[in-house]
Each structure stands twice: as C-alpha cells, then as structure tokens.
Amino acid sequence: MILPFLIIIPLLAAFLITLISGEKDNWAIVLSILAAISLLTLSIFSFFTTGNETFIYEMSGWKIPLTICLVQDAFSTFMLVIVNLIALTSLMFSVSYIKHYSGTWKYYALFMLMITGMNGVIATGDIFNLFVFMEIALFAAYALVAFGGKAEEYEAAFKYAIMGSISSTLILMGIGILYATTSTLTMANIAAILPTKDPRIMYWVGAIFLAGFGLKSAVMPFHAWLPDAHSSAPAPISAMLSGVLIKALGIYVIIRFFFNVLGAPQIFLTLFMILGSISIIIASYLALGQWDLKRLLAYSSISQIGFILLGLGIGTKLAILGAVFHIFNHAIFKSLLFYNSGAVEMALGTRDLRKMGNLKDAMPVTSTTSMIASLSVAGLPPFNGFFSKLIIIIAAVQASHVGYAIIAVIGSLLTLAYFMKVQRYGFRGNDKIEKPEVKISNGMKSAMIILAVLCIVSSALIIPGIREVTLDPVVSVIMNKTGYIYEVLGR
Amino acid sequence: MIVYILCFALFLVGIYGALTKRDLIKIILSIGIMGYAANLMFILFAYKTGASFAILTEEGINTNMVDPLPQALILTSIVIELGITALLVTLAIRLFEKYKTFDITKIRRLSG
Are A167 and A193 in contact (CB under 8 A)? Predict the structure, then answer.
C-alpha cells in the first residue's frame, strides 16, 4: 500500500527538519526536496497502477465502520499527482527565492506540513479525519502567508485565519449532523445510509458544506479572503495556495462529497452552475481593473474556479471530464504565472504592471514562460487551457444550457483581455528594462520551464488513447456513487 | 429541544461577534464561542439521559451508555481550536506592533 507513505513521508520530513536543521546549514532544503521527489514518484506510480480499481487501507487492522480508512482510486491518485507535482516545482523555486528571509528551515517545515494536510485530505475516506487533515493544511497555510513578516502579510493572514475558522466551524457542525443521522463517519457508509433518512437532512448538510467548502475554495460570494492572502504570501506559496490548496481542500472535497456521497442531487448542481457563472463573470471584471500583478492573478484564480464549478454543475460525463481536466491545467498554468510574478518581483522589486516594461531581453526565460502561461489560461490553441474550456462549453451546449455556455465564452474573452493587459504592460511594454542585478537562479528557471513544457504537453491528455488511461477513470469514479460505496465497503 | 435551540443561539452569538466587532481580540473571542457551540452540539447529539460512561466493568459491558465517539472527536477539535487561537493571538500581537491599534477599521493597507 502506497497511500500511508504519502502522509508519513512529509510529516516525518517536517519533524526531522525542525529537529536537525539550524540557521546556516542546508539540511532543510535537502530533506524537503528529497521528500518532494519521493512523493511525486510514489504518487505517479500509484496513479498508473490504480487504473479503474480501488484499494482500501484500513488503519491498525480494524475493519471499516470502526477504523479510519484511506481510499486509493483514480480520482484521489490524480489529485495526489497534481499536489505533489506543484509542491516539487514550488520547492525548486523556493530555494533561492526565500534565501533572504531569516529562519528558512521553519518555512520548509511548514511547507511539508501543508503537503501532509493536503495529501491526507485527498487520501482519507473518513469525514472527521478529513477535517483534521484540512486543519493541518490550513494551519500551515496561515503561518506561511504571514511568513514574510510585513504588516500587509499579517493583515492578510489574520483575515484568512478568521474566514478559515468560520468555515471550519460550519464544516464541523455539518459533520456533527451527519454523525447524528447516520451514526458513522466513513464516507462510503454515510453514502449508503443517508438516502434511507429524511431528505431534508441531506439538504441541510449539503447547504452547510457548500458554504464551508465554498469558503475554502473561494467561490464568488465567499471569496473575500483570497485576493489578499494569495497576493501577500511569498510567490511559491501563492503558487501552492492558488494552484493546489483551494482545489485539494475545496473543489476535491466538494466533488467527493456531493458526487460520491450525496449522489449529485439536481438542486446542488444548479447551485454550482449559478455560483460558477457568478464567479467567472464578476472575478474577471475585478481582475481587469487590477494593476498589481499578483492581485490580478488571484482574481483570475477565482474566475477559473468558476469554470471548474460550472463544469461540475452541468453534470454530464463530458462536462465533468472538462472540469477534471481544468483542475489539472489550472494548477499548472496558475502556479507558473505566480512563479513569473515572483521572479519579476525579485528582479525589479515591484509588482505594479505600470512600473514594468519590456523584459524580453532582460529576463528571457521569465517573459517566454509567462507568454505561454498567459496564452494557456486565456484559452488559445494548442495550449491545455483551450481544450478544457472548449470541452466545458461544448458540454454546456449539449446539455442545452446555452446561457451558461455564453457566460463561459464571455468569461474566456475577459480572461484573454486581462492577460493581454499583463503582457502588454508587464512583460512586453514600451520601456526597455536593463538587465537587473539580481540573478534568477537555475532552480527558479527550471521550475518555470518544467511547468511551461507541461502547459503544452498536457494538451495530449485529451487524445483518445491517452485519455482512456488518464482522465476517463477519474470521471467514472466521480460519476459512480454506487461503485464508490461498493468498492469501499465491499458489498 | 430547548438545549439545541440554546446551542444554536450560542453559535449565532459567535457569528454575530465575528462579523460585527471591530476589535481584533473580540473577533478572536467570537471565533472561540462559535467553536464551543459546534463542540457542544456534538456532545448534545451523543447525550442520553440517565446513561453512564462506556467502560467495561466487572459486571460486563454497560448496555445503557453514552456514545463515547463524539467525546473523542471533540477532544481533537478542542486541540485544533487551541492551535488556531494561539496563532490568531500571535497575529494580533504582531498586527498591534505594526499598526499600534487593535481596531480593524484602521488596519486597512490591503484593499478588499
């Protein structure tokens, strides 16, 4: 069994880092990079060995209603690959980016704790265990947002922590109601028992969880913390938060709970579509007005989450394929854009688009990769963002939701508009920028290049032969509630 | 029934405080009250009048017992809340060092 190691390795790494590293040595870097490489290898291996099957790990030898179980199926391993891929590139980027902060070993220890939390949330099949891992990840995230030690960072972290605590309390109440109704905490058991109870309880719990996990994933009415937290954090942490944290704690749990446990009731699908389209349009307009590069990217994250939620809400097989593919794509190009913003901030000391200029000669790697990422997020072929958005739009038309399809098209055009603004002012402006004194290190460059290559290569996931072994098993896990119950409980 | 309503009222007190108060410390206290309400709700769900603890005694298993699982869960949740509260208080102290005030209307360098 692989899944326990995906939780044990980062937890052990965090523990060892606090134990053995001091101010001057590089043990923290070595340990965390080693841990991240082994995590990525393990998660890719588990993804390709899982296929259409489901494996269950029951902790400490007890059987299912009495124990905490870990569920390894196509969907959880797919999310694990995304988390650990972005974590590795983020660590590569961090090494020289956070060198000038003091006490960097704390950064690496917190980073490993955050990965522990996210891997745990994805792997677990027990709803209270999910809550505990979620709190571990959030706790590390609050501390990492405040890591820089500037006034704005404390302010953003405080705001994030308050919003996070409110949503966690809501989620805890939802878990309490679920336990009181079904007398079990295993998600598959809840899925089996809940339909036999009063349907009003399902709506109550669904509403509470939609508010709770909607706050975590920053869907539009619950988004207020995201632009502050994501733009104040150090760039590699912004990439982790925007790229994977809001998906692992928000979107992943929403999919797991509403599709596998509740069986996708129509009222919530309609709500997903409405919230998704609100997020797409309003967040795009807000992004259009920003001059701070990282704030613009943060608002762009909200609108891309809207695309994912819209795809989920349509609820057909094709739409969910688009949503799952967009989760992967968004993790890659949004992390890349945050690395670009970090590199620019490090070299020029500003995030204001008006103070940037033509970076083509001064920072060739950064400007080229930012171009690729911008085209990808704006949805131009042959980059990966084009295909996922196209699938969502086609699925909306096929399911005769033409209005939502038009909203998605307008959203894509607005995305194109504000990324044209980024390129026009930020990376290909009129003022020629001299070669900056701060060198962008090779680790940062390679992190950007890896993700830029993935932006193009991952378009291949949509080719039928490759899709059948990568995305299709994930979609079939999401669509199949009875299959989930059967595979986990074995009856 | 009345205890559930009171428990929900406690939750509303907490959420009212978190949303309307201007003082950082009062916001942290309100978050704490919300957490207590959630914990109390768990315990109330598990409570049975006249039941006793779930421990194996010399006479065998006590059949009329309170569900022990929510109590274990609440212990975990209390520890998490302790950590979050400590972090929030630390952040409040740092914010006070930077801005010389606990008033959130004056702590506004980031535009919403």
Answer: no
